[in-house]
UniProtKB/TrEMBL annotation:
It comes from Blastopirellula marina DSM 3645. Pfam families: YidD. The lineage of its organism: Bacteria, Pseudomonadati, Planctomycetota, Planctomycetia, Pirellulales. Keywords: Cell membrane, Membrane. It comes from the Bacteria. This is Putative membrane protein insertion efficiency factor. SMART domains: Haemolytic.
Amino acid sequence: MSGWAFLWQAADGLLAESMIFAVRLYQIFLSPIFGRQCIYQPTCSHYFIGAVQKYGPLVGAVRGAWRICRCHPFSRGGYDPP
């Protein structure tokens, strides 16, 4: 593996772990305050983590953000895996 590929892979992993850490902080500290609001299963925060783990930080973040945008009272909700 070349040096640039290694650096890119390391940066990609660090970014993914940082995103997951931020969502975990939300789950621990803010989610209990707001209560259960998500109409989807798994919840939007769990979906975001799964999408980042499955697709990487860039595509996963876009998919997670799209899911959060769809989470509103007029949406059907239901089961929607990453």
